[in-house]
Design a protein that fits this description.
mainly alpha; 56 residues; single chain
């Protein structure tokens, strides 16, 4: 008897089990999104200030 032909079909391979919350092309991370360098520096400085304030 060929046991490989009985039972349920195999699940798809190379397919993620869930979708990421910030996947490319989603609402949170749309394609062709360019954040400016000024925005990045502003966020980094704010994070550094917050970390410094939390330590003190």
């Amino acid at each position: 008897m060929n046991y490989g032909k009985s039972g349920a079909t195999k699940a798809g391979k190379n397919k993620p089990r869930h979708s990421e919350h910030n996947a490319k092309g989603s609402d949170k991370n749309p394609y062709n999104q360019q954040s400016s360098k000024e925005e990045l520096l502003k966020r980094m400085k704010a994070a550094a200030e917050k970390k410094k304030a939390d330590e003190a």
